[in-house]
Design goal:
Structural class: alpha/beta
Strand content: 15-25%
CATH architecture of the largest domain: 3-Layer(aba) Sandwich
Helix content: 25-40%
Order of helices and strands: EHEHEHEHHHHHEEEHEHEHHHHEE
Number of helices: 14
CATH superfamily of the largest domain: Thiolase/Chalcone synthase
Radius of gyration: 19 Å
CATH class of the largest domain: Alpha Beta
Largest sheet: 9 strands, mixed
């Protein structure tokens, strides 16, 4: 067995296909529709009938009181293995790693991992006010304004400690918007200029409008099976080379300038036999641009405190040396709750399978994908990452 959080060797396991629903602003469809539709699309893309699925992993904020068992019931699936994510935007990648280990251990043969939610701005605010007892009892009564206030403190502290500028952060939002403009499923497809980013409406100083993703409805799913079987299916098999996860990294740390990625990034690269220069794209969890900067630091692309300068000096466009969030990320596609933690994973698989359309980067072979979530009393508690390859 593989203990949770260990550096897994995922030999013999492959991603057969992914599925992504349409993204909707102010959705009038329930969360279960996005879950079921994402699964349907992934299975159709793989060419696998539903009755061959014997494992299911689900991540969703709005699903309770339903769960993995009731979703299986609604989809008519008989399961040998199940998983219910409780790690927010880190949950989808954690579900993928645990599904891969379940297949290795003989607990299942074909597993679908799905993440989805159906949020409007208003329903997202309601959910955040009771997201957990710490936020419900100690932050919401004082008008915290959701997670934006917490990340505003984080950005301000990062700028104070390391000199990170709004112009550096703005480059991330502008480049990702350019990627979204050629992504037909992105909610925002109008070009964004740096001036527009810098002068947008203030939300919570220093965060402005284009620092914040739009809550929406959407779902993402991936089919995992044995590598032998995946080779006989419709799509190019994608392998998970390595992955890691952490929860409540450094409990003594109040403001999360350093996160759990820093504790396992070197391990996943050494397990994969890779250097940072081998990575063709990064799909980072981008609930706010400052988190992309922190991830670039903690994942080892630059030293702590140099993330802003790294972004300024690196070509992160689709034709650059390190394409970042090639589909537009949550900042321009939208944040579908727990599905936001799956958006980058789906995009990486599409790129590696050559299915990214007009935003396809040239001949990619290696992708690094991250997940992040479960904001507690003062910080995001869960981090995850995986390395994918089509070789």
């Amino acid at each position: 067995m593989h203990p949770a959080g260990s550096m897994g060797d995922f030999a013999g396991i492959a991603i057969a296909a992914v599925g992504q629903t349409p993204y909707h602003k102010n959705p009038d469809l329930p969360t279960v529709w996005y879950l079921v539709e994402a699964v349907r699309l992934a299975l159709a893309n793989a060419g696998i009938p539903k009755d061959e699925v014997d494992g299911l992993a689900v991540s969703s904020f709005l699903l309770p009181p339903d769960n993995t068992a009731t979703v299986a019931e609604q989809m008519g699936m008989e399961l040998k293995w199940g998983f219910l994510g409780a790690f927010g935007g880190a949950g989808h990648l954690i579900g993928v790693m645990r599904a891969a280990r379940a297949i290795q251990d003989g607990e299942a043969k074909t597993v679908v991992v799905v993440a989805a939610d159906a949020f409007s701005v208003a329903s997202h605010h309601v959910m955040m006010n009771s997201f957990n007892t710490g936020m419900r009892d100690y932050l919401a009564p004082y008008g915290m304004g959701g997670t934006t206030g917490l990340f505003a403190m984080l950005e301000r502290r990062h700028a104070y400690e390391y000199g990170t500028t709004r112009q550096q952060l703005g480059k991330i939002a502008v480049v990702q918007r350019a990627n979204a403009c050629i992504n037909p499923n992105a909610l925002f497809r109008k070009p964004l200029t740096l001036d527009e980013y810098l002068n947008a409406r203030m939300i919570c100083d220093p965060l402005r409008l284009y620092d914040c993703p739009l809550p929406c409805g959407g779902g993402e799913a991936v089919v995992l099976t044995t590598e032998e079987r995946a080779r006989k299916l419709r799509k190019r098999p994608i392998r998970v080379l390595a992955g890691g996860e952490r929860t409540n990294y450094r409990p003594d740390q109040f403001i999360m300038l350093e996160s759990g990625w820093s504790d396992f990034a070197s391990d996943i690269l050494s397990t994969s036999g890779l250097k940072h220069s081998d990575i063709d794209m990064v799909e980072l969890y981008d609930d706010y641009p400052i988190m992309a900067v922190i991830q670039l630091e903690d994942l080892g692309f630059c030293a702590k405190g140099e993330g802003g300068r790294f972004v300024a000096e690196t070509d992160i466009t689709l034709r650059g040396s390190l394409p970042l969030n090639t589909g537009g990320g949550q900042l321009s596609c939208g944040q579908s709750g727990a599905g936001g933690g799956a958006l980058g994973f789906t995009e990486a698989v599409m790129q590696l399978q050559g299915d990214a359309g007009d935003r396809q980067i040239r001949d990619p072979h290696i992708a690094l994908v991250s997940g992040f979530g479960m904001v507690g009393f003062v910080k995001g508690l869960c981090q995850s990452a995986v390395v994918l390859t089509n070789d």
